[in-house]
Amino acid sequence: MFPQVDPTSTSSWQALLLHHEKIQKVQMKDLFAKDPSRFNRYSITLEALLFDYSKNKVVDETMTLLLQLFTSCKVDVAIKAMFSGELINKTENRAVLHTALRDFTSDKLIVDGMDILADIRSVQKQMKDFCFRLHSGTWKGFSGKPIRYIVNIGIGGSDLGPVMVTEALKPYTISGMKAFFVSNVDATHLAETCKQINAEETLFIIASKTFTTQETMANAHSARQWLLQQGALEKDIARHFVAVSTHEAGVKAFGIAPENMFVFWDWVGGRYSLWSAIGLSIACTIGYENFEQLLHGAHTADCHFAKSPPEKNIPVIMALLGIWYRNFLGCTSEAILPYDQYMHRFPAYFQQGNMESNGKHASRDGKLVSYATGPVVWGEPGTNGQHAFYQLLHQGTDIVPCDFIAPAQSHNPWGNHHQLLLSNFFAQTEALMLGSAHADSNRVFEGNRPTNSFLLKKITPYSLGMLTALYEHKIFVQGVIWNIFSFDQFGVELGKVLAKNVLKDMEHDEEVTTHDSSTNGLINFWKKMRE
Ligand code: F6P
Asked: Is 162 in the pocket of ligand 1 (CB under 6 A)?
């Protein structure tokens, strides 16, 4: 049974409230001065990945209480429930099994009487065969030329994961291939992409779990029209369009042949879907073998998460620290700061991951929660951020816990660039923690500002898979402790429904009076402006 514990009813939560008073005045720099082993005691390695959480406003008692909270909220039971395929996404009556997509070690996983591992392997084989045909040049476009351009049309989880990974792993791009990602319903996104590609050498991947998403369907139809305008015939569509979806009928209705469809299943959440056939654009761009390495890396993180004791468990510690700052120190946002240009979409990916999963106000027993849930998650790569928003991180009135992420080795070891980059990473975490005194208050750095540091040996498909899965599991642990449903997203529905109503009012010329005066005013003003 999936646990359902109000975290505020636990003695550890109450103890943390009291403990928070005690720790208010604690300075991290004093903790480091007193304890030379703090780094060793407050860091965890997973293969070649280092997670250093020593620069946090925590002492041993804090960690003990947070770990007690983990136990009281029965997160261990929840972890087992997820991995075993229980229907833990209760509001949608679904299992949550993205971990199965990267499980190469189990033989069987029965869900609803079906062995889902067999289904997964079969789609993986289909993806592998497809990549082989594409990269060997046997799959040809309408003029007989092989495919060079991959255009993924999708949005949200059907876009952010593929784009994040494809960008992060750009050095692994198959020679001659180029990937594009079209998500926005603003035609500019598609139009500007079409300026950079040749229809005869382009494959459009229509990626949509539901195959009903307005933006994706509009872009898919326009892409199809564009292809026909470029000289392709109806019969050529099959060579230039494939689909990834759970909705076979929708794909068929669009006109994509069943053999050009890659399925996935309702137990894969949209924002956790890059590991499924939604990752087809990744595999087409960096090769199937590299895609598989990504899955292997994620599986290593899954095993670590499922088997390590909580005090040595990276996602558990990440989650508990996040709860400490959110619920006991009142922090409203968290920043993810990759010191790697290729990782520039990693913060945006986990913005969706966190905010769509844990931006919830109803508890698992249907009541409104009395405590804060998911924070705002944002970020940009270093060192650009340093010249933009780090001012607020150092001297602003809000404390923003930050994750710093960097590879020890660069894919582009030009001169001393990488040392310059990493010197900024290390110095920023030091400066945020130490601060600096000054007679002039404008120049004072209070310091005592928390950071986590992640060091990877190099950004590879394997290490990126591992890091990404660690962040996913952090979201899971927090959702369990906050006693919310992390795998639905009802909060996106109202806007979609109202947009449909508004669209109807925009399709005629009469004055609109059925909304509030602001919405009426905006629509009517637009009607005049467009003339
Ligand atoms: O609008 C939110 C959402 O449902 C996301 O959860 C999802 O990732 C995205 O839209 C795209 O949905 P689909 O893959 O069904 O097109």
From this structure: no
Q: In this structure, how many other beta carbons lie within 10 angstroms of the beta carbon of residue 251?
A: 24
Helix orientation angle between 461-481 and 346-358, rounded to the nearest 10 degrees: 20
Residue 205, φ and ψ in degrees, nearest 5: -105, 115
- CA–CA distance, 46 with 497 (Å, rounded to integer): 45
Distance CA(81)–CA(89), nearest Å, equals 11
**pLDDT computed for residue 113 by the predictor:** 87
CA gap 330, 15 in Å, rounded: 16
Distance (angstroms) between ligand 1 centre and the Cα of 231 equals 32
Residue 81 is encoded by which pair of tokens?
């429930």
Q: Residue 143: helix, strand or coil by DSSP?
A: coil
Strand residue runs (E) in 296-444: 333-338, 376-378, 402-407
Token pair of 14, please? 């109450």
Query: Which of 160, 181, 213, 485 should be mutated for ligand 1, with most atoms under 8 A from CB?
Result: 213
Q: How many CA atoms lie within 13 A of 83 on its CB side?
A: 18
Pocket test for ligand 1, best of 210, 214, 244 (most atoms within 8 A of CB): 210
Pairing of strands 110-111, 114-115: antiparallel
pLDDT for 371-409, tens place per residue?
999 999 999 999 999 999 999 999 999 999 999 999 999
Q: What is the pLDDT, as a whole number, of residue 212?
A: 95
Tell me 153's DSSP state.
Answer: E
Point out the residues that are catalytic. 356, 387, 496
Distance (Å) from CA 92 to ligand 1 centroid: 14
The whole-number pLDDT of residue 98 equals: 98
Decide: 99 in ligand 1 pocket, CB within 6 A. Answer: no
Q: Using the atom order of ligand 1, give the atom closest to the CA of residue 492.
A: 1
Reduced to 3 states (helix: H, G, I; strand: E, B; else coil), residue 182 is: strand
Which residue is listed with tokens 């991995």? 83
Is the C-beta atom of 209 inside 6 A of ligand 1? Answer: yes
156: Cβ below 6 Å to ligand 1?
yes
d(CA 101, CA 426): 36
**What's the CA gap between 193 and 190, in Å, rounded?**
5
Which regions in the chain score pLDDT beneath 50? Answer: none
Residues in the chain: 531
| CA 426–ligand 1 middle distance (angstroms) | 37
Is 271's C-beta closer than 6 angstroms to any atom of ligand 1?
yes
Determine if ligand 1 sits within 6 Å of the CB of residue 247: no
379/521 Cα distance (integer angstroms) = 35
pLDDT of residue 269: 98
Q: What is the signed CA dihedral for 457, 460, 461, 466, rounded to 10 degrees?
A: 20
What DSSP state is assigned to residue 398? S
Q: Which residue type does 148 have?
A: R
To the nearest whole percent, how much of the chain has pLDDT over 90?
98
Distance CA 513, CA 520 (A): 6
Predicted confidence at residue 469, as pLDDT, reads: 99
Tokens coding 493: 């529905």
pLDDT value at residue 1 = 83
